[in-house]
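Same chain as my last thread, 151 residues:
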Amino acid sequence: MTTLKEFEEALREQGMNMALAILAKLRERDRAKRSIAPARRITGRKMTPDLARQILELHATTGMTQQEIAFKLGINQGRVNEVIKRGKWLTDDPNAPEAVARDRALAKARNQKEASRRTRPARPRPRPENATREPRKRPRRDQTQLTLGDL
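reply #2:
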């Protein structure tokens, strides 16, 4: 399959300047109409038993895919899969494995945020006025060169 760049090069080789001008106009028109779409990344809502029941209800009553359900409810598609396949998040038990993992992850994120606030960049130490900075002297190495005849 020919690419647009190859097509453009072929037009140049044939000296078809009018066709190249039309192609340039079409490119400019497309650039003018082009919009920068926001990222489709969805920030997930907190999973609750009510949300899990809503997922199961949508899955049972509609022909929606897991991705469509996730997009409609504003959650990650992996969470929809967990609810449908494994029945996670259906109980409000704080000792459930998924609730424990969530709480542990939230605590870890909180601790990292606090630790980053506490650490400050080191300030340079003031030097005495009479101290001069001299470069360190490195020991000289023997710099003999090998030639192909030496091997």
